[in-house]
Design goal:
By secondary structure, the protein is α+β, with helices and mostly antiparallel strands. It contains one helix and seven strands, in the order H-E-E-E-E-E-E-E.
Protein backbone atom coordinates (compact mmCIF):
# COMPACT_ATOMS: atom_id res chain seq x y z
CA UNK A 1 0.00 0.00 0.00
CA UNK A 2 1.34 3.32 -1.03
CA UNK A 3 -0.97 5.79 0.70
CA UNK A 4 -0.03 9.42 1.06
CA UNK A 5 -1.63 11.75 3.58
CA UNK A 6 -0.95 14.39 6.15
CA UNK A 7 0.48 13.24 9.45
CA UNK A 8 -1.80 13.65 12.49
CA UNK A 9 0.43 16.36 14.00
CA UNK A 10 0.35 18.50 10.85
CA UNK A 11 -3.43 17.98 10.61
CA UNK A 12 -3.96 19.27 14.17
CA UNK A 13 -1.75 22.29 13.49
CA UNK A 14 -3.74 23.13 10.34
CA UNK A 15 -7.05 22.81 12.21
CA UNK A 16 -5.86 25.11 15.02
CA UNK A 17 -4.64 27.67 12.47
CA UNK A 18 -7.98 27.58 10.64
CA UNK A 19 -9.83 28.08 13.95
CA UNK A 20 -7.68 31.12 14.80
CA UNK A 21 -8.29 32.66 11.36
CA UNK A 22 -12.06 32.14 11.65
CA UNK A 23 -12.10 33.66 15.18
CA UNK A 24 -10.13 36.68 13.95
CA UNK A 25 -12.54 37.26 11.07
CA UNK A 26 -15.59 37.03 13.36
CA UNK A 27 -14.05 39.41 15.94
CA UNK A 28 -13.09 41.84 13.20
CA UNK A 29 -16.64 41.86 11.84
CA UNK A 30 -18.06 42.46 15.31
CA UNK A 31 -15.62 45.29 16.00
CA UNK A 32 -14.15 43.61 19.04
CA UNK A 33 -10.57 44.78 18.55
CA UNK A 34 -11.04 48.56 18.80
CA UNK A 35 -10.54 50.54 21.99
CA UNK A 36 -13.71 51.46 23.88
CA UNK A 37 -15.15 54.89 23.15
CA UNK A 38 -14.84 57.50 25.89
CA UNK A 39 -18.06 58.65 27.49
CA UNK A 40 -17.83 62.32 28.40
CA UNK A 41 -19.49 63.84 31.43
CA UNK A 42 -21.05 67.29 30.98
CA UNK A 43 -24.36 68.69 32.19
CA UNK A 44 -27.00 70.71 30.39
CA UNK A 45 -30.33 71.55 32.00
CA UNK A 46 -33.65 72.53 30.47
CA UNK A 47 -36.42 74.49 32.13
CA UNK A 48 -39.60 76.16 31.01
CA UNK A 49 -40.39 79.84 31.55
CA UNK A 50 -43.87 81.00 32.57
CA UNK A 51 -44.31 82.16 28.94
CA UNK A 52 -43.80 78.57 27.69
CA UNK A 53 -40.31 79.12 26.32
CA UNK A 54 -37.49 76.63 26.96
CA UNK A 55 -34.25 77.78 28.57
CA UNK A 56 -31.11 75.64 28.29
CA UNK A 57 -28.08 76.13 30.51
CA UNK A 58 -24.65 74.55 30.15
CA UNK A 59 -23.81 73.69 33.77
CA UNK A 60 -20.35 72.20 33.22
CA UNK A 61 -18.87 68.93 34.45
CA UNK A 62 -15.51 67.17 34.50
CA UNK A 63 -15.20 67.31 30.70
CA UNK A 64 -16.61 70.83 30.20
CA UNK A 65 -13.34 72.15 28.80
CA UNK A 66 -13.43 69.53 26.03
CA UNK A 67 -16.77 70.74 24.57
CA UNK A 68 -16.41 72.32 21.16
CA UNK A 69 -20.09 72.98 20.40
CA UNK A 70 -23.67 71.98 21.13
CA UNK A 71 -26.40 71.13 18.65
CA UNK A 72 -29.84 69.58 18.72
CA UNK A 73 -33.43 70.69 18.67
CA UNK A 74 -36.55 71.44 20.64
CA UNK A 75 -39.66 69.71 19.32
CA UNK A 76 -43.22 70.76 20.12
CA UNK A 77 -44.99 67.73 21.63
CA UNK A 78 -48.32 68.64 20.03
CA UNK A 79 -46.74 69.11 16.58
CA UNK A 80 -43.70 66.86 16.17
CA UNK A 81 -42.74 68.34 12.80
CA UNK A 82 -42.32 71.79 14.36
CA UNK A 83 -38.84 72.09 15.88
CA UNK A 84 -36.30 74.74 16.72
CA UNK A 85 -32.53 74.20 16.30
CA UNK A 86 -30.30 74.63 19.34
CA UNK A 87 -27.18 76.82 19.32
CA UNK A 88 -26.02 76.82 22.92
CA UNK A 89 -22.68 78.41 23.80
CA UNK A 90 -19.70 76.17 24.56
CA UNK A 91 -18.63 77.82 27.83
CA UNK A 92 -19.92 76.93 31.28
CA UNK A 93 -22.87 79.12 32.23
CA UNK A 94 -23.96 79.70 28.62
CA UNK A 95 -27.73 79.88 28.20
CA UNK A 96 -30.17 79.81 25.33
CA UNK A 97 -33.88 80.60 25.44
CA UNK A 98 -36.15 79.36 22.66
CA UNK A 99 -37.84 81.86 20.39
CA UNK A 100 -41.05 79.81 20.27
CA UNK A 101 -43.50 79.11 23.03
CA UNK A 102 -44.19 75.45 23.86
CA UNK A 103 -47.42 75.55 25.82
CA UNK A 104 -48.14 71.82 25.45
CA UNK A 105 -44.58 70.87 26.37
CA UNK A 106 -41.40 70.23 24.43
CA UNK A 107 -38.98 67.40 23.76
CA UNK A 108 -35.40 68.66 24.08
CA UNK A 109 -32.40 66.79 22.68
CA UNK A 110 -28.91 68.31 23.00
CA UNK A 111 -25.75 66.84 21.44
CA UNK A 112 -22.26 67.92 22.43
CA UNK A 113 -19.39 67.78 19.95
CA UNK A 114 -16.05 67.40 21.67
CA UNK A 115 -12.59 68.51 20.59
CA UNK A 116 -11.68 64.99 19.45
CA UNK A 117 -14.61 65.09 16.99
CA UNK A 118 -16.90 62.69 18.84
CA UNK A 119 -20.57 63.54 19.30
CA UNK A 120 -22.65 62.48 22.31
CA UNK A 121 -26.19 63.07 23.58
CA UNK A 122 -25.92 65.11 26.79
CA UNK A 123 -29.61 65.89 27.34
CA UNK A 124 -32.79 64.13 26.25
CA UNK A 125 -35.77 65.32 28.25
CA UNK A 126 -39.32 66.68 28.19
CA UNK A 127 -40.23 70.04 29.70
Amino acid sequence: MDEKGVSPVIGVILMVAATIVIAAVVMGMLGGFGPPKKTYSVAVTASKTPQGKVTLTFIGGPDASLVQSFSGNITDISNSSNYEPINLGSTVGATMTSTKSYDQGAHVIVYATFKDGTKQVVLDTYV
